[in-house]
Specification:
- By secondary structure, this protein is mostly beta strands.
- It starts with a strand and ends with a strand.
- It has one helix and eleven strands.
- Strand 9 and strand 10 form a beta hairpin.
Length: 193
């Protein structure tokens, strides 16, 4: 197994930058059991008056072999053998803008997830799937005496599409949630919500 990680952070005045790179490679214990993962995360933010705003980006790539199950006899004969040649891939990309202040915070995010699967165990089978999501999550918080009140709205819209050797499918989903919470400070170390 090989792992490489690098982390960079820089602050200049009211601006902060950060970047993280992580990579893992492993041959695995069994045949067709190799695993690779690469991820990249970056953030840029700025403070101005009582506000902090900026953007975050996240990218990841993953590939893995799926060796399948072994019968007891095959396991005794060779525990590292594979019964499948299937392989899977997954990629994720997202970008998020954020704004935070004394009494207001909000995030707007766009993300995409892509998956692939290929198997020749019982004839050729291939599949691909994509999930695209947009979310908006504004909220306000106020302090009234011993009460810490947070009110927010969560909006999510997703689109799913998939195609495979045997057919295609798709779906759309929208969700909206409104919430209100109140945390009452009873003592310095005790809250009731």
């Amino acid at each position: 197994t090989q792992r490489i990680n690098a982390d960079f952070r820089k602050r200049a005045g009211d601006t902060a930058l950060s970047l993280n790179v992580d990579s893992i490679k492993s041959a695995g214990y069994r045949d067709n059991n190799a695993y690779e993962n690469f991820s990249l995360f970056g953030e840029a933010s700025r403070e101005q008056a009582n506000w902090n705003y900026g953007a975050r980006a996240n990218l990841s790539r993953e590939t893995s072999g799926l060796p399948g199950a072994l019968s007891e006899a095959n396991y005794i004969s060779d525990p590292t053998a594979a019964s499948s040649t299937a392989r899977a891939k997954e990629s994720r990309n997202s970008i998020e803008a954020f704004l935070m202040g004394d009494g207001l915070a909000t995030e707007l995010a766009v993300s995409k997830k892509h998956q692939e699967y290929v198997s020749t165990d019982f004839g050729l089978y291939e599949s691909e799937a994509d999930i695209n999501t947009v979310s908006l999550t504004p909220r306000v918080n106020r302090q009234y005496g011993n009460n810490s009140i947070v009110a927010g709205l969560d909006i999510y819209r997703s689109k799913f599409s998939a195609k495979s050797t045997y057919g295609n499918q798709g779906a759309k989903q929208q969700s909206y949630a409104v919430y209100l919470t109140d945390a009452i400070s009873l003592r310095k170390d005790t809250d009731l919500s």
